[in-house]
Fold this sequence. Notes:
There is one protein chain. The protein has 70 residues and is of the alpha+beta class. The protein has one domain (2-68): Alpha-Beta Plaits (2-Layer Sandwich), CATH 3.30.70. The protein has helices spanning 14-25, 53-61, and strands at residues 2-9, 30-36, 41-46, 67-68. Strands 2-3-1-4 form a 4-stranded antiparallel β-sheet, with helices on one face.
Amino acid sequence: MTKNVFAVSGMKCEHCKANVENALRSLGGVSSAEASLADGSVAVEYDEKAVTPEQLKDAVENSGRYEMEL
């Protein structure tokens, strides 16, 4: 398992935070995702053999008006 913290812009409320977390948790290989509104980031623990950072980014950006930096 790999754990990384990624910057996410566009999260403004608890609903946004939940959207980002749920988008990531819905991917196979993601064991946890915890977003922070205060930091504008998301900590993700995932199996790098099952999911790539690019797939994480796509999931976040397709869940709303968010941008995730790798």
